[in-house]
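Shipment paperwork, digital attachment
Item: protein structure file
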Amino acid sequence: MRRREFLTGLLLAAGTDSAQAQTPAKMHRLALVNPSRPTSEMTETGPSTYFRALFAELRRLGYVEGHNLLVRRHSGEGRAEILAELARDVVRQQPDVIGANTGRVAQHLKAATTTIPIVITTSDPVGLGLAASLSRPGGNVTGYSTEPSLEVYGKSWRSWGRSVRS
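Attachment content:
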């Protein structure tokens, strides 16, 4: 299974059962949290390529907002001092999964819940204390790193050092 499909599948937990086609589709609840972007821009048609790509992939996988997907958007409005309370508010709404695309927001979300899956996009999740390691993040936080962590740089430099000595 491709990593992107796995993460998106995790993002929305379980799908609907095709054998029960006559019953209404399960409504999956997704919370999107951003420290500064207005909630009106966190859409399938908004200016952000990140959100357009996210919603396009969800749609490709059969998750359509308003049909079987309920999306609640949350913004810190550029105010770092409200992020902890914002994270607690998001968790109180009990979404199936939370998406966050910065380390600062993810740290507050991780502190607010140990059970709701949090999918992050950030640099150095290990250094930020969000994951035990890149290969085995542990806990309820997963996602991908936008740049290699010190863990990866260390491996690269050790490898380079061996090749130079050879």
